[in-house]
């Protein structure tokens, strides 16, 4: 009986140790792909007149061919967010084997 338990543990422990790492690797699609083309955002005239500066943080969903499929703003001044989104949508990343999520931060200063 003790021998069976020892054999079962010997077999199951390495398998269970691999499962969380595999599951985590499957769920995480964030990476750091090289940016090939970076388009500068147009500074909004309202932001310029109000002397608004700062950064906009966003996550870009990038297709395997390197084009940006969508941009989701995660933080920053609302007046600057649309300009940042429009710029990042025109960025081009290096190709990859699968779709990835890329964190980007755009700085604005008048």
Describe the main β-sheet briefly. Answer: 3 strands, antiparallel
Straight-line N-to-C gap:
76 Å
What form results from the Cα inertia axes? Answer: elongated
Spans of 5+ residues with little confidence (pLDDT < 50)? 15-29
Q: How many E strands? A: 5
Structural class: alpha+beta
| Proportion in helices | 25-40%
- Whole-angstrom Rg: 22 Å
Cross-sheet strand order for the largest sheet: 3-2-5
- Overall mean pLDDT stands at 81
Contiguous helical run count: 3
Strand content: 25-35%
Order of helices and strands: HEHEEHEE
Question: Can you offer a commentary on this structure?
Answer:
This protein is α+β, with helices and mostly antiparallel strands. It contains three helices and five strands. It has helices at residues 2-27, 45-49, 78-88; strands at 35-37, 54-62, 68-76, 92-93, 100-108. Strands 3-2-5 form a three-stranded antiparallel sheet.
Q: How are the elements arranged and paired?
A:
Layout: H1 2-27, E1 35-37, H2 45-49, E2 54-62, E3 68-76, H3 78-88, E4 92-93, E5 100-108
Antiparallel strand pairs: 1-4, 2-3, 2-5
Q: How would you describe this structure in keywords?
A:
110 residues; alpha+beta; 3-stranded antiparallel β-sheet; 3 helices; 5 strands
């Amino acid at each position: 009986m003790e021998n069976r338990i020892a054999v079962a543990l010997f077999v199951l422990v390495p398998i269970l140790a691999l499962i969380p790492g595999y599951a985590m690797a499957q769920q995480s699609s964030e990476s750091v792909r090289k940016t090939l083309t970076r388009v500068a955002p147009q500074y909004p005239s309202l932001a310029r007149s109000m002397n608004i500066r700062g950064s906009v943080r966003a996550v870009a969903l990038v297709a395997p061919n390197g084009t940006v499929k969508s941009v989701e703003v995660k933080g920053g001044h609302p007046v600057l967010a649309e300009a940042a989104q429009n710029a990042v949508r025109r960025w081009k990343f290096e190709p990859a084997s699968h779709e990835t999520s890329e964190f980007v931060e755009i700085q604005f200063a008048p």
